[in-house]
Design brief:
The chain is α/β, with parallel strands linked by helices and 147 residues long. The protein has 5 helices and 8 strands.
Length: 147
């Protein structure tokens, strides 16, 4: 596969899932991990993606219907080993319920898990800020607060 074809494939994968691992891209492109890392470096220099530990995520400018650099895009995680399992579970779930303590709302993991549009309910503690309550409500996500 030519580099231009791999670049298109990488962008297509990232647009579909917002994040992809080097291993996933390598398998899809039938190319070595080293080749994919070089491709990701080129795409990052072009400002099209952001490389993050274990893979890459698509760069979406504010106003383009996706998360900007400072805007929380949805559920994230820092563990590349868990992310694949979590995504597989999410893909099979009819309703997605997220259990997260209130401190998680101010953090962004390095790996994108899913968008807010996929989350049906969030259960958290009573330390959640009013701003985060409004953010959850604005996305039509059911919020349950445990005390």
């Amino acid at each position: 596969m030519l580099s231009a074809e791999r670049h298109e494939l990488i962008l297509r994968l990232l647009r579909r899932g917002r994040f992809a691992t080097v291993a996933d891209i390598s398998q899809a492109a039938r190319s070595s991990a080293a080749t994919i890392r070089r491709d990701l470096a080129r795409l990052e220099r072009a400002g099209l993606i952001q490389r993050i530990r274990g893979g890459a995520e698509i760069v979406v400018e504010p106003g383009e219907g996706g998360p900007g650099k400072d805007e929380l895009p949805g559920a994230t995680n820092n563990d590349a080993l868990l992310i694949r399992t979590e995504r597989a579970m999410i893909d099979r779930a009819r309703d997605l319920v997220v259990l997260a303590d209130s401190t998680k709302f101010d953090r962004r993991g390095s790996l994108f898990l899913c968008g807010f549009d996929r989350i049906h309910s969030i259960i958290t503690d009573d330390g959640i800020s009013e701003g985060h309550k409004e953010m959850v409500a604005s996305r039509a996500i059911r919020l349950r607060i445990a005390s």
